[in-house]
């Protein structure tokens, strides 16, 4: 009797077929991931998506708290694209986004190439270089305000004075404030880009460097012909993240200059903040927020599409 029972069991095991899951098991596998995601989804819905939808609604109204909102259609958007302060803020945002993205990626790449390797104490230098990326922006802004003290005895002015330059007013001058904010943004963002590029460099095939060296390629040629092509995916992600970060720049500008002097460093986020929370023009502020959201989405789609196109061409 036992022998007759063992034969079907052996056949069932040798067939390699998995036992059919019960409906309860299927339901459990489907529901469990959503249960783990539920707390985060609730937070996103309450604090992100509902306010986002409400901001889109408010952008078509003259918002008057406690008095009732008045429908104005596209007037708020017309104000955004015709008001000189908004146009200036859009220009400053683009300048900071492009400058910070290019500068941080360039310096991050140089730092990654210099700090790549398996030396025993190299992690100490990497940690020291990465500190600006994790430091609180309020602390960073205060440190740089001290460094850029406009007097001739200020730390930065004393340094550039050694080379025959200055003194500069840095954050207090309309001519130098944008460059000063840009320097701070690059200083804080470059270490983050460095760590992402370091992670990408770990996946580069070292035999390609050896083959390029045998062909007579120098260090710069090896970087251009071997390193950059191998980092296309990493650089595409970095450009996307850096561009979004640049378009949404707020904290460093708010803490360093608050958009001054005379609007020289005013960006979309600081202008939206002032209109919505200081002047109470919530409708126009919401329209500006929607414009920024659309620009961010479009930029992300274009960068990702360009990355896929290059990948397909290669």
Brief rundown of the structure:
This protein has 314 residues and is an all-alpha fold. The chain has 14 helices and 2 strands.
Outline the structure in words.
This protein has 14 helices and two strands; from the N terminus they run H-H-E-E-H-H-H-H-H-H-H-H-H-H-H-H. The protein is mainly α. It has one domain: MetI-like (MetI-like fold, Orthogonal Bundle). A two-stranded antiparallel sheet has the order 1-2. Helix 4 crosses helix 8 and helix 13 packs antiparallel against helix 14. The termini are far apart.
- The topology string of helices and strands comes to HHEEHHHHHHHHHHHH
Secondary structure tally, helices: 14
- Overall mean confidence score, pLDDT: 82
Number of strands: 2
CATH topology descriptor: MetI-like fold
């Amino acid at each position: 009797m036992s022998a007759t029972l063992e034969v079907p069991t052996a056949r069932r095991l040798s067939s390699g077929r998995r036992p059919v899951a019960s409906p309860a098991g299927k339901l459990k596998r489907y529901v469990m991931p959503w249960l783990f995601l539920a707390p985060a989804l609730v937070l996103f819905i309450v604090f992100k998506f509902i306010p986002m939808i409400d901001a889109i609604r408010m952008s078509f109204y003259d918002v008057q708290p406690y008095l009732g909102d008045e429908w104005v259609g596209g007037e708020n958007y017309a104000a955004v694209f015709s008001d000189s302060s908004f146009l200036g803020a859009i220009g400053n945002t683009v300048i900071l986004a492009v400058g910070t993205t290019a500068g941080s990626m360039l310096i991050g790449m140089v730092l990654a190439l210099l700090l790549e390797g398996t030396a025993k104490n190299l992690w100490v230098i990497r940690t020291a270089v990465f500190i600006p990326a994790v430091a609180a922006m309020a602390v960073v802004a205060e440190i740089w305000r001290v460094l850029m003290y406009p007097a001739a005895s200020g730390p930065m002015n004393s340094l550039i004075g050694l080379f025959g330059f200055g003194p500069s007013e840095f954050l207090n001058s309309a001519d130098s404030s944008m460059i000063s904010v840009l320097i701070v943004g690059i200083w804080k963002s470059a270490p983050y880009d460095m760590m992402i590029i370091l992670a990408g460099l770990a996946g580069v095939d070292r035999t390609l460097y050896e083959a390029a060296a045998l062909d007579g390629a120098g260090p710069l040629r090896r970087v251009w012909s071997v390193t950059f092509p191998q980092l296309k995916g990493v650089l595409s992600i970095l450009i996307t993240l850096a561009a979004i970060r640049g378009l949404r720049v707020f904290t460093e500008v708010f803490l360093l200059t608050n958009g001054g002097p005379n609007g020289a460093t005013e960006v979309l986020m600081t202008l939206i903040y002032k209109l919505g929370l200081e002047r109470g023009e919530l409708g126009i502020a919401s329209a500006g927020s929607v414009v920024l959201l659309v620009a961010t989405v479009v930029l992300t789609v274009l960068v990702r599409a360009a990355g896929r196109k290059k990948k397909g061409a290669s």
